């Protein structure tokens, strides 16, 4: 009698050495935490003299967001709480609940002055100027 592997969430599945379905079964062995992750997508664009970082955030308000730049690391945090008026409703399906998530990106030459952020239509846009190294160059006249 052969052993039959157990895959969490999918039950007991038969194993056949030449079964093409085993490949797909193995691909589906994804931890449940990864499936329920509330991470949000971000885009980082190099604009030459600055970086533009866009975070796509649905169902949150400006008050749910926290943006920090610490030694070149830009962190965007969301702490969305369930709204009081949503409690007690009879949902057939509900996927948005209270959650927290943080995304970060390292911007090696980010300046700490001149930062700006806007939030409109579910998109947070953060503009991070680049640090310009000042060089002490002095022209010398030739006699």
TrEMBL record:
InterPro entries: A-crystallin/Hsp20_dom (IPR002068), HSP20-like_chaperone (IPR008978), Small_HSP (IPR031107). Gene3D superfamilies: 2.60.40.790. Residues 33-143 form the SHSP domain. It comes from the Bacteria. Belongs to the small heat shock protein (HSP20) family. This is Hsp20/alpha crystallin family protein. The lineage of its organism: Bacteria, Bacillati, Actinomycetota, Coriobacteriia, Coriobacteriales.
